[in-house]
Amino acid sequence: MVDRHDPALRLVIVANPGWREEAILRERAPHVRAGGILHLQDVPRDELAALAREAACFAHPSFGEGFGYPPLEALAAGTPAVVSDIPVFRWLLGEAALFVDPYDVEAIADGIARLVDPGEAGTVLRASLRARAPAVLGRYAMDAVAGRWAALLDGLRTRPIASRV
Prior knowledge:
By secondary structure, the chain is mostly helical. Helix content is 53%, strand content 11%. The protein is built from 7 helices and 5 strands; from the N terminus they run βαβαβαβαβααα. It has helices spanning 22-34, 45-54, 69-76, 87-93, 105-116, 120-139, 142-158, and strands at residues 11-14, 37-40, 58-60, 81-84, 98-100. The strands form 2 sheets. Strands 3-4-5 form a 3-stranded parallel β-sheet, with helices on both faces. Strands 1-2 form a two-stranded parallel sheet. Helix 1 links the parallel strand 1 (11-14) and strand 2.
């Protein structure tokens, strides 16, 4: 479905098999053999960064996350992201990503298709998401985080012991 805009596009899955993935791997196998899907495992960090920089888009249809570094890494690489519409991603990414229902395969495919659309709508959407990324990434920059930690620790150090409980 995603290749409707460009038959040369390939879905590249970068993940090691997880728990109870046998059925998913069997379902995906014919597409891997046909070359429509590439499944990469144990990708070194520098190669992962190169994949993110060169990707047409980044898709992360996760059902649950603790924080969500991969979408932030995609944003840092300048790659527009389509992610699950779950609270942690809404909090983490704000308006810098396209959100989809992770239980709806059509919604995920449509989100990817919208991001890779070579027409004006796709160009505008990608530009809009990229323009919003610096504000999101700025919240997690080393200086910003270090400053918040310093303020927290200074506040704890200066408060009376009785009020720390």
